[in-house]
Amino acid sequence: MSVNVLIAFYSRNGSTEALARAIAEGAKSEGAEVRLRRAREVVTEEVMAKADGWLENARRMNAQYEEPTPADAEWADAIIFGTPTRFGNVSSELKAYIDSLGGIWAQGKLVGKAGSAFTSTSTPHGGNESTILTMYNFMAHLGLIIVPLGYANPLVFRAGTPYGASTVSGQTSTPPTADDLEVARFQGRRVVQVAEALKMAAAAQTT
Q1: Rounded to an integer, what distance in angstroms lies between the CA atom of residue 160 and that of residue 164?
Q2: Greater confidence, 71 or 170?
Q3: pTM score, two decimals?
């Protein structure tokens, strides 16, 4: 049974983007159709220009990825959210997208879909786990079936978290490690497997 996966993420310097792409690879390896979508900035280009690389990276990624919409979430059988941490919490850019889902949430159109999350931080213990757990809050409100990683893959003992994939970029935007990316690919595969089981169960109830 074919599964549709939305990966809605925000990335400023590319670390979260790299995890998103690896998750997409994992999902596609299980036969899923994937939409990679980047949330947009909530500040002006004048503000962005004050931080090295922000404006340039935003222009590159916005040209490469469409903006996520409520229609994307309605289309999906699984939604995987990604964000860099902001003081141990979700970025305002991704949160703005979440807040746009109120209309389809009120119609119950997200209930029963698989949901998962991933993050990146610039410092060790800078919010890897708390940021993902914070995303569990809104996923519960949306009615998603939350899919953590657990320790279902031995790689999680070396990278990521049992809650979702993560990476530490440091102050120089160090790319994710090979283990970070492999955990992300595993997350993509795992979410598709769960979403497929949920979709099959739902179909069986209607026959």
Answers
A1: 6
A2: 71
A3: 0.96
